[in-house]
UniProtKB/TrEMBL annotation:
<dbReference type="InterPro" id="IPR015422">
    <property type="entry name" value="PyrdxlP-dep_Trfase_small"/>
</dbReference>
<keyword id="KW-0032">Aminotransferase</keyword>
<dbReference type="InterPro" id="IPR004636">
    <property type="entry name" value="AcOrn/SuccOrn_fam"/>
</dbReference>
<dbReference type="InterPro" id="IPR015424">
    <property type="entry name" value="PyrdxlP-dep_Trfase"/>
</dbReference>
<dbReference type="GO" id="GO:0003992">
    <property type="term" value="F:N2-acetyl-L-ornithine:2-oxoglutarate 5-aminotransferase activity"/>
</dbReference>
<keyword id="KW-0028">Amino-acid biosynthesis</keyword>
<protein>
    <recommendedName>
        <fullName>acetylornithine transaminase</fullName>
        <ecNumber>2.6.1.11</ecNumber>
    </recommendedName>
</protein>
<dbReference type="GO" id="GO:0005739">
    <property type="term" value="C:mitochondrion"/>
</dbReference>
<keyword id="KW-0808">Transferase</keyword>
<dbReference type="InterPro" id="IPR005814">
    <property type="entry name" value="Aminotrans_3"/>
</dbReference>
<dbReference type="InterPro" id="IPR049704">
    <property type="entry name" value="Aminotrans_3_PPA_site"/>
</dbReference>
<dbReference type="InterPro" id="IPR050103">
    <property type="entry name" value="Class-III_PLP-dep_AT"/>
</dbReference>
<comment type="similarity">
    <text>Belongs to the class-III pyridoxal-phosphate-dependent aminotransferase family.</text>
</comment>
<keyword id="KW-0663">Pyridoxal phosphate</keyword>
<dbReference type="GO" id="GO:0030170">
    <property type="term" value="F:pyridoxal phosphate binding"/>
</dbReference>
<dbReference type="InterPro" id="IPR015421">
    <property type="entry name" value="PyrdxlP-dep_Trfase_major"/>
</dbReference>
<dbReference type="GO" id="GO:0042802">
    <property type="term" value="F:identical protein binding"/>
</dbReference>
Length: 466
């Protein structure tokens, strides 16, 4: 089948001119001038950003990096000096289209002027005090989150894994308060990813993450994601064991609304409806991890909104909440709002700076209609990826995902091969397991940039064509 596009694309040149800083800046100026849109930074902001780069702060001594920084990541051999919208510039002035988005984190893109202004203004006033005092920005953010979700209360922390730790602790306290439960059980899913701290890691049923850190926190049982039979059998098994051991019972079911690190696997509606029904019947809490899918990424503000008539008792969010400024949140309904002073805390959680950033992101998402943009651009991107699958059936086996969190499952090739080839063409993508290429661009991505990414991926696939 011939591979063609119904929408004209910007032709992407990969040659020496993109590695020249002055030429690169001219191309950036031209792009913003000829492709203006409501989601991009202004032309003046882009030029100012480019011209005001502090070279000394952005200089990298690779020897020092390798000498002093722990090797917890397999890093690409490049770094970035500045960005604007969905564009990043590396140390050589090379302009790259960002479909990684800080791993689904830079929700409003790079250097969004409203986010820059909010952070700068808050930093010039008071950036941190303590949760020993009232923090107005925290109240404003909590109000926005509650008014835009099914939750009643919010706890703030610093990351996704901390938010999930808070959810695990709250579920355990719920079991203690309701049943005086001494052996609480939380059900989670294989191929999940809930974080790397000990509690969240214990809920993350992937051996590659757990094996070096045994023994794990007790009280977790695993099922197959989207498998109703697996879930019901596990509930029956634990319920029967409670007959002989009444101290052991299910206090919660922790699932991702769509699995991200597990291969970009959207949740099945009927499965989630069954989980909700069973939780109601046995009195357990339904806990959804929205760390990667929340804040509009999937074309809905929250991932659970894809599951008709399903509302969690607890859900967590982090990555896209403040657009790259560290923050996490655990939200719950009033019937499980059980934390008291001393039960849980976070020194930096919900400080003025992070909350001001998150509140700015929330307002940008609303004012610039980014949830709708994620839905429309995601539809265009998925359609283009499906065409790629038709054109290269020996390479791509499946396209899946929601909105702007999409995955290409590969047949013979490794995701790392596609990632490297795309990087050579100035497109940043990432993996979600060894055989899945993940695309998670900023929510400000434009139609032209989607088409550009698809053309680059088409060029990449040609290199692997048999």
């Amino acid at each position: 089948m011939a591979f063609c596009w119904s929408v004209p694309v910007l032709h992407h040149q990969v040659d020496k001119k993109w590695r020249n800083k002055s030429t690169c800046r001219k191309q950036m100026h031209k792009f913003h001038h000829t492709n203006s849109h409501p989601f991009a930074c202004s032309k003046e902001m882009a030029i100012a950003t480019s011209d005001s780069v502090n070279e000394s702060n952005n200089a990298l001594d690779a020897t020092d990096f390798d000498k002093y920084v722990m090797k917890t990541y397999k890093r690409q051999k490049l770094y970035f000096t500045h960005g604007s919208g969905a564009w990043l510039w590396d140390q050589d002035g090379r302009k790259l289209l960002d479909f990684v988005g800080g791993i689904a984190t830079c929700s409003v893109g790079h250097s969004h002027p409203k986010l820059v202004e909010a952070v700068s203004q808050q930093m010039s006033q008071v950036h941190h005090v303590s949760n020993l005092y009232y923090i107005p920005q925290q109240a404003q953010l909590a109000k926005w989150l509650v008014e835009h979700s099914c939750a009643d209360r919010v706890f703030f922390c610093n990351s996704g894994t901390e938010a999930n730790e808070a959810a695990i602790k709250l579920a355990r306290k719920y079991g203690k308060v309701r049943w005086n439960c001494k052996e609480p059980v939380i059900i989670s899913a294989y191929n999940s990813f809930h974080g790397r701290t000990c509690g969240s890691l214990s809920a993350t049923a992937q051996t590659k993450y757990q094996s070096s850190f045994l023994p794990l926190l007790p009280g977790f049982e695993y099922i197959h994601y989207n498998d109703t039979t697996s879930f019901l059998e596990m509930v029956e098994k634990i319920t029967k064991s409670s007959t002989s051991n009444p101290d052991r019972r299910i206090v919660g079911v922790l699932l991702e609304a769509a699995q991200g690190e597990g291969g970009v696997m959207p949740g099945d509606v009927s499965f989630f409806q069954t989980v909700r029904q069973v939780c109601n019947e046995i009195g357990a809490l339904m806990i959804l991890d929205e760390v990667q899918v929340g804040m509009g990424r999937t074309g809905r503000l929250w991932g659970y909104e894809h599951h008709d008539q399903v509302e969690p008792d607890i859900f967590t969010t982090a990555k896209g909440l403040a657009g790259g400024i560290p923050i996490g949140a655990m939200l719950c309904k009033s019937h499980c709002d059980l934390f008291e002073p001393g039960d849980h805390a976070a020194t930096f959680g919900g400080n003025p700076l992070s909350c001001a950033a998150a509140l700015a992101v929330c307002h940008i998402i609303e004012e610039e209609h980014l949830v709708e943009n994620a839905k429309e651009r995601g539809r265009e991107l998925k359609l283009g990826l499906e065409r790629l699958k038709e054109s290269y059936p020996h390479i791509i086996s499946q396209v899946r995902g929601w909105g702007l969190l999409l995955g290409l499952e590969l047949k013979e090739y490794a995701a790392s091969q596609i990632i490297e080839a795309a990087l050579e063409e100035d497109l940043l993508v990432l993996s979600a397991g060894p055989k899945v290429v993940r695309l998670a661009p900023p929510l400000v991505i434009t139609r032209e940039q989607v088409q550009l990414a698809l053309q680059v991926l088409n060029n990449v696939m040609k290199k692997f064509k048999l």
